[in-house]
Amino acid sequence: MKISKKAITLNVGLVLMGSAVFAQNLNDAKKAIDAEQYQKASSMLKSLVSSQATNGENYYNLGLVYLKTGYIDSARAVFTKGVTADAKNNLNLIGLGEADMLSNNPTSAKTNFDKAVALAPKDYKTYLNIGKAYLAQDKPSEDVSKPDFTNALANITKADELDSKDKDADVFLAQGDAYALQKKNSEALGPYMRVGDVDPNNRRAKTQIGKMYKESRAFPEGEKELQDVIAADPNYGPAYRELGELYLQWSSFGTDQEKAKKGIENYKKYMDLTDKSLESQLRYAQFLFYAKDFQTLEQVASSMQVPANDPKGIVVARLKGWSAYENKNYPQALTYLTEFFSKEKDKTKILGNDYLYLGKSQLKAGQDSLAVMNIIEAAKIDSNNADALAEAGLALMKAKKYAKSAEIYNLAIKYNPNGKGSLTNYYYLGQTRFYESYFLQKDKKPLNTAGLVEADSALSHLNKVSPDFALGYFTRARIANLMDDKTSPKYASIPFFEKYISLVKPEEAASNKNNLVESYDYLGAYYADKDKAKAIDFLNKSIALDPAGPFATAKLKELQAPAAKGKGK
C-alpha cells in the first residue's frame, strides 16, 4: 500500500510528540527525586515503567527511589527487570552495583560496573553514574555502608574528561558531593559553584553551599544562600531542611529559643513538602526537644507509626520517655524508658540523657537506689548532668533521708566541683550532715562524727570561695555546737554565729527570723556570765524579732533581776 509523504510526516510527528511527553514525565520524576518527594517520584516512575516498559532509564530511576528510601531488595528486583527489558542500556547494571555497595559487597559491585563500562566505554554518563554509585551510603548517621571516595572520584574525573565541553552540571554536582561527603568543604565549593554556571536553575548545589556555610558556622551567609533557593523555588523541600538545621545549630541547640523555633518552622515545612519519612519525623522530634516544646514532642512521638522490629522503635521509645517526663507524666515516662532500656542492647548507643531521665523518673517513683545509680551513669557520660544529682539530693533531703541525701551531694560535688550550682552542693552537703546527726541525737543515738567533719570541711570551702554567703556560717555554727563537748565545751560555734549575724542585712531580717533568733539566743546565753551588757543586747534583738520566744524573755528577766541580798544584812 502506498503511503503518502504527508502521512509519514504526521506519524513521525506523533512519535516525536510522544517522546517529548515521555521525556517531560521522566524529567519531572527526576525533579521529584531531587526534591526528596519519593512517593510522588515512585508513582510517576511506576506509571512510566508500565507505559514505556522497554526503556531502561525508567527502571533505573525507580530503583534509585527504592535505594533512597531503604528498600535495597526492591531496588535490586527493579534493576534486574530493567536489565532484561533494555539489555543495551547500562544504567540498571550500575543500579545493581549501587545496591551491592549499599549491601557491603564491593566485589559484586565492581563486576556490575565493569559490565556497564563494556556496554558504553566512551559515554561520560557511564562513569558519572558509577562515580555516584560509589558515593552511595545507607544513612549518614549509620555505619552500614561507607562511600568509596577513591573509586568515586576516579570515575567522576573520567566523566569530566569525556564531557570536554562541560555541558552537564551533574558532573560538577557529583564532584562537589564527593568532597562534601568527606567534609572537604573548600574543595567542594568550586564544583558546586560551577553547577550554577552550567545550570542556573539547579537548586541542590546552592542548597549544598548553604549547608557548608552552616557547617563552617558562617550562619548569616548560609541563611542567605538557602533563602535565595527558597525565593527561587518555594517548593524545594531540601532547602527548608538545611535552613532548619542551620537555625537549630545557630540557636546553640535551643539556647536561643527564637532561632530554635525558626528551625522547627523550616523543618516542618520540609516535611510538608516531602514524604514525612520516619527519619524526618525523628529529626523533627529532636528539633522539638531542643526547642523545649515538650507537649508537641510527646504528641509527635506517640503518633509515629514504627513497623515491628524496626530499630527506630527504640528511638521513639526514648523520645516518648523524655517528653513524658518533661510534661510531668512521670509514671508514663518510667514505662517508656524502661521499655527503651529493655530493647537497646548496644550500651554504646545509650545517651547520658537516657540514664538521666530514667533516674529522674525512678526518683519520682520512690526508687531511690536505682534512681541514683542511673543519674550517676548520666553524670559519668556528661558532667552537665551532675545538676540532676543535686536535684536528687534535694528530693531525698525533703523526704528526710539525710544520710542518703548527703551521699548524693558528695557525688554531685565529685562530678561538678566548680561548675554551675557547685557552691550550693557544698552548702547542702553541710545541711544534710547536720540534720542527720541532729536527729540521731534526738533519738539518743551516736552522732555521725565523720559526717559532721565532712560537713564542716565542705562549709569551710564555701566560706573561702563565697565569704559573703551568710547561711554557710550559720550551718557551720550549728555543726560546731552539735560536736561540742557538753562537759567541757569549747564554744567553737560563737565566731560563726557572730559572722552570720554580721552578714544579714536589716532588710533581710524578716526572712531570716528563725535563724537570727537561734543565733541571738545562743550568743545571749554564752555572754550571760562573761559580758552582761552584750548578752542583754543579743536577747533584746531576739525578742524584737520574736516577742513570744520563751528563752530570750526568761533569760533577760534573769539577767535584769536585782541581785539577792546576803543573809544577815
Weakly predicted, low-confidence segments = 1-22
Taken as a percent bin, the fraction of beta residues is under 5%
Mean pLDDT: 91
Biggest sheet features: none
Radius of gyration: 37 Å
TPR repeats: 56-89, 169-202, 386-419
InterPro entries: Ski3/TTC37, TPR-like_helical_dom_sf, TPR_rpt
GO biological process, one term: RNA catabolic process
Keywords: Repeat, Signal, TPR repeat
How would you portray this structure in words?
TPR repeats lie at residues 56-89, 169-202, 386-419. The longest helix has 30 residues, at 5-34. The protein has helices spanning 5-34, 38-51, 56-68, 72-85, 91-102, 106-119, 124-134, 149-162, 169-180, 185-198, 204-215, 219-232, 237-250, 257-273, 278-290, 294-303, 312-326, 330-343, 352-364, 368-381, 386-398, 402-415, 422-442, 449-465, 470-483, 494-503, 513-527, 532-545, 550-560. It starts with a helix and ends in a 9-residue tail after the last helix. Helix 9 (169-180) packs antiparallel against helix 10 (185-198). It has a domain at 504-561. The chain contains 29 helices and no strands.
